[in-house]
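job 3f2a | input accepted
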Amino acid sequence: MSGQCKQKAGIAILGAGIGGCIAALELARSGQPVTLIDRAPRPMMGASRHNEGKLHLGYVYAADARLDTHKIMAQGSLRFLGILERLTGVSRDQFTVSDAFTYVVPDDSVRTPDEIGTYFDTVDDTVAQICDQIGLPRLARARVASTEFCQSAYSDRVQSAYRTAEIAVDPGRVSDIVAAAVYAHPLITFLGNQTVMDVSNTGSSGYRFGLSGNTEITQLEAAGVINALWEDRLRIDEMIGLRASSVWSQRWKATVVIDVPPGSVTIPSTTALVGPYGDFVLYGRSRVYVSWYPVCRLSMSTKAIPDEVRALAAATDHEDIRTRSLEGQSELIPGVLDLLQYKDTTRIGGGFIMAIGDSDIDDPKSALHERHQIGVEDLGNWVSLSTGKFCTAPMFAVEAAQRLKESLA
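job 3f2a | predicted structure (409 res):
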């Protein structure tokens, strides 16, 4: 440790994932100087980069008995590209997207095809209402896939399939665009390689942080804060008296991303529901995302220390994850076995998933099937940002920025 230094910031944002970055861009756009802090050396290096990038309309939450989650997911997803376009200056057609998703119902799903069909009708009604409210063209409703289509793409374990208008965006492309906008904005100062160790409320002057970096411990003072730390958000919130009202679980999910020759893969982007399955996503014509939950979920706990989980993930055999994920996914989509040949262009990533609940997704009553207890909470000039999902992060980040501006005014 070479020494200490102190810095002051009008507004500090903790965490440079998609939530923290969008909040920073929103504040900077209104003329507010922002200091953005992250443990990684660059913005958008964690879960925001390593996920399937789905713009959820809510179909996957067919086990939410309250019927609340899909409403929030659709609100965030239908606004997602518009917010990014406005804050980054990059038009929405420059974001790499997938083909429209097919949802399949395996033979051991916790919901029947009829139950899922009824639920999809509810989702489609909600999506139509939101499109009308925000001035977007209505999307096509989910429809049952033909027998010929199912037989051409899926195994006999698939009971039924529904074709939807839902898409994903390549999160790597999103991460690069958002990070570039952060670096380019003159009112945003990014501090990388900094871990938030502690925080205290200093009264009228705001908050004081202890930051641990590679070579020094820095004290940072800020008048207002947005806490967008993701896996460490709850610990830091509690230090200033903002306590979670529910039990949260922390999972680490590995991801498999494969670059393939353009046009060589024709498998439809697919999600299986409801249970411990996974996703297959084809972005554009040359990049594939695969996740098979029984293999890729490396950790789940309500008490795990994030650094210990990162160490566990780093020590995992990447070749084993690659092979077993493709083999597992092939139980439903036999064609994914052809991707085993692309070993040299496969990358294993991963990130934390934070959600309310302490039982896993194969439990039909698990709180993991619900993601409606998310959003923005504040205490004085401290705003806690629970983004929930990648697709809802920009919507809630804009709300967090607006709340902090109003509080500081």
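job 3f2a | The chain has ten helices and 17 strands.
job 3f2a | closed
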